[in-house]
Design brief:
The chain is mainly β.
Length: about 750
């Protein structure tokens, strides 16, 4: 699959040159945009490169100009101030590097990163983008400094079967993986101690994210911005995997990262269209710039006053790091959240972390702990459904709960004890009789908080609530409207359910029953017809926490448990918790829009006035947009990582994401197309990137390519979500003028802005 920028073609100006620079070349052109429209009255950036010999040669003359187009889109430029560039590369002897090869550090104050000040193999820091003495060597990804990286090294077609080929030849690779090694090894060049790491001690290859951060810090997204940056990146060209030839020195640069992607590796690439992060075949010969040190481990506490954490810092990939979370008086550690896949034990306040080859963030979650807490009275007497009821109490995680579900005749003996199932309430309704599993049904919605009957109200329409309009303020606290619990008790918050769930030995029905609360699996009543489903296999428990038109619930099944949201017309179990005599905590609920676009960290119970950190991380193919909801409580609604100050009420925030779209520009050279007439013929591209293989010419807006000036290059830019696409080129409408009749389609993977 040819899916990287390094398989692309470029338009090269070739001409015979005298021994001295030309005194003047007059050039005129009409400027059009990608839609073929004339661009008038605008500044046009032009870069001229004259390459020695052919398209593979070194740039011997370069010039940048910015002429102004007139009202007809015409520009006129006089190329007579071209800068000569030495075409003789510096002779570099490998082995022990001479003193002038030792690179000094350079620091980017925007990214906070320290880099080597030159490319590996370069004899000096770049004095210009085309300083040949700063070009350095061209490595195949993952290989050590065995001599293959020299621009003049020999070639071989023998693929290596291990990490060290044992010779200094550049390996030609034309198989499906386009790698110098078979089988591929994704673990090369990972961190300062990575296999074959070519960088000096204490340095490593940068990650894709680190390259992208550098790119975003530049004054412009082009070669000028790259050279003006602290890194002073030159246009060093590259060697192609198909023949080992050197291409575009002085016109293009590409730099390896350590980030693998499929069969390729991510690179930062610059050509006449700008700077991009893209995939490249690992057998390419590409420049290497080393970054100093290690990766960041960021540790936080979810509540500023709840406890302290230790272990933050910079570490090598693979390093074993001990981190700890210590609760302040009145608090207790609950668990670690965030990038916990790197921890030995996310439930231990003192645990070991294995550092990956990238920055990570981990948050210690603390919860309030009442010192010496006891339930006090062992029984609670109250009126339930018009009759006297006596329940026991039980302590768990510093809280006092009723020992059974509302309506249950006894404490559970097993998780499927039918006598311990109890009643199934619609959220927000009182104990008016509807909660009995055998209650009658009605399709008449209630317009008040008290329906005035004991029927189970069913509905098939949004928002699937027994009450219309909805009332979000039912069952809120011990004094909440229709609170069915005994005096001094209430519905638990979703956070209290979550803390309870974390204490179980297994996160499923077995663990729920083995807990002090001895949860059971009574099933539920559906909101369509009031049928009783999944008794003996599911347990669903209402919380007092609302979420838009829904309510948070604790779901228990034989294989798993989770906190989720459900429609309020369902009939679910109720377990009551005694209201705390200590500080009041309010819920911070975090959601993702749309579902599946990313993850959020920082939800929980917070005391009024305390501050906590919340973060939103986009999944692949998405990007963070902003926070919405109770945004007056956060520092910056446009930042994915921000601070929330808790008010004296429950709040909800939603992290919004949008699909990440990328520009794919296709450039087609028609110079050698037989019978092609640039004045009369039209060029189309069709395939899955233009819909689902529409007939060429049937959708000109999405298929017609535009000629670039008076050249033989035709271009078309698509804005696409990430994914795999197929396409072919055609001359004139219809299928008859297509390329490769009967041959496979062109294929490409879009994972960033690309020019092909």
């Amino acid at each position: 699959m040819k899916n990287s920028l390094l398989f692309s073609a470029a338009l090269i100006l070739c001409t015979s040159l005298m021994a001295q620079a030309p005194q003047g070349i007059r050039h005129q052109a009409v400027i059009r945009n990608t839609q073929g429209e004339i661009v008038s009255g605008d500044t046009i950036g032009i870069r001229a490169n004259i390459l020695q010999g052919d398209a593979r040669g070194t740039a011997v003359f370069v010039e940048n100009q910015k002429p102004q187009s007139n009202e007809r889109g015409l520009i006129t430029s006089e190329k007579g101030q071209i800068i000569p560039v030495s075409s003789t590369p510096a002779e570099i002897v490998r082995g022990e590097e001479p003193e002038n090869m030792k690179a000094n550090d350079v620091y980017n104050p925007i990214t906070g990163k320290v880099w080597m000040d030159r490319n590996l193999g370069a004899s000096q820091v770049a004095t210009s983008s085309t300083d040949v003495n700063s070009y350095g060597d061209l490595y195949q990804w993952g290989r050590g400094s065995d001599g293959h990286q020299l621009r003049t090294s020999g070639t071989t077609t023998t693929i290596s079967v291990n990490d060290s080929p044992g010779h200094d030849n550049f390996i030609i690779a034309n198989d499906d993986s386009y790698d110098w090694r078979s089988p591929q090894n994704d673990n090369l060049w990972q961190g300062v101690n990575g296999v074959n790491n070519p960088c000096p001690t204490g340095y490593r290859l940068p990650t894709e994210a680190e390259w992208n951060a550098e790119r975003l810090s530049w004054s412009s997204n082009d070669d000028a911005g790259a050279f003006a940056s602290p890194l002073k990146l030159p246009l060093a060209g590259y060697r192609h995997f198909s023949d080992g030839s050197l291409y575009y020195s002085g016109a293009i640069f590409a730099y390896w990262s350590s980030t693998v992607s499929g069969i390729g590796t991510r690179v930062i690439f610059c050509d006449a269209w700008g700077v991009f992060i893209e995939n490249a075949a690992r057998a390419m010969g590409i420049s290497t710039r080393c970054i100093k040190g290690n990766h960041n481990l960021n540790l936080w506490a979810n509540l500023n006053d709840a406890g302290t954490v230790t272990g933050s810092g910079e570490y090598e990939a693979g390093a074993q790091v001990v981190i700890s979370a210590t609760a302040n008086p009145g608090w207790e550690f609950v668990k670690w959240t965030g990038d916990t896949q790197h921890l030995d034990n996310e439930n231990s306040g003192n645990t070991t972390l294995t550092m990956p080859a990238y920055d990570i963030s981990i948050i210690a979650s603390f919860a309030y702990q009442s010192t010496g807490f006891t339930c006090g009275l062992s029984t609670v007497t109250f009126t339930y459904n018009g009759e006297l009821a006596i329940y026991g109490t039980v302590e768990s995680e510093g809280q006092c709960w009723l020992d059974r579900n509302l309506g249950a005749s006894r404490v559970a003996t097993i998780s499927t004890d039918a006598q311990a199932y109890g009643d199934l309430f619609q959220w927000g309704r009182g104990d008016d009789g509807h909660q009995a599993i055998t209650s009658e049904i009605t399709f008449t919605l209630s317009s008040s908080d008290t329906p005035g009957h004991g029927d189970f109200i069913v509905t098939k329409n949004s928002p699937w609530d027994w009450r219309s309009p909805q009332n979000h303020n039912l069952w809120q606290g011990v004094s909440g409207v229709n609170n069915p619990c005994p005096s001094g008790y209430r519905l638990p918050t979703w956070w209290e359910f979550l803390v309870e769930r974390w204490s179980w030995n297994t996160s499923n029905a077995e663990g729920a029953f083995n807990s002090p609360l001895k949860f059971v699996v009574p099933g539920y009543r559906d909101h369509d017809y009031g049928f009783h489903f999944n008794a003996g296999s599911w347990g669903l428990y209402w919380s007092g926490s609302v979420e838009d038109s829904f309510t948070e619930v604790l779901e228990i099944r034989s294989t798993e448990s989770q906190i989720r949201v459900l429609r309020r017309a369902y009939g679910l179990s109720v377990r009551c918790i005694r209201d705390s005599e200590h500080s009041t905590y309010y819920n911070l609920d975090l959601d993702v829009n749309p579902i599946g676009a990313g993850t959020v960290i920082g939800a929980g119970g917070y005391e009024a006035g305390t501050q906590g950190i919340i973060s939103a991380t986009a999944n692949p193919g998405w990007e963070f947009v902003n926070w919405t909801g109770d945004t007056d409580c956060i520092d910056d609604p446009n930042s994915a990582l921000t601070t929330v100050t808790m008010p004296e009420y429950n709040i909800s925030l939603t992290a919004n994401f949008s699909p990440a779209f990328f520009d794919l520009t296709l450039n087609l050279d028609m110079s050698f197309a037989p019978g092609f007439n640039p004045e009369t013929d039209l060029v189309y591209v069709t395939g899955t990137l233009a819909g689902f293989w529409p007939v060429p010419g049937s959708d000109p807006d999405n298929q017609l390519m535009t000629r670039v000036g008076e050249t033989m290059i035709w271009t078309k830019t698509f804005t696409l979500p990430p994914g795999d696409y197929q396409y072919k080129y055609f001359v004139n409408p219809g299928w008859e003028g297509g390329e490769w009749s009967g041959e496979p389609n062109r294929e490409i993977t879009v994972a960033g802005d690309m020019v092909v």
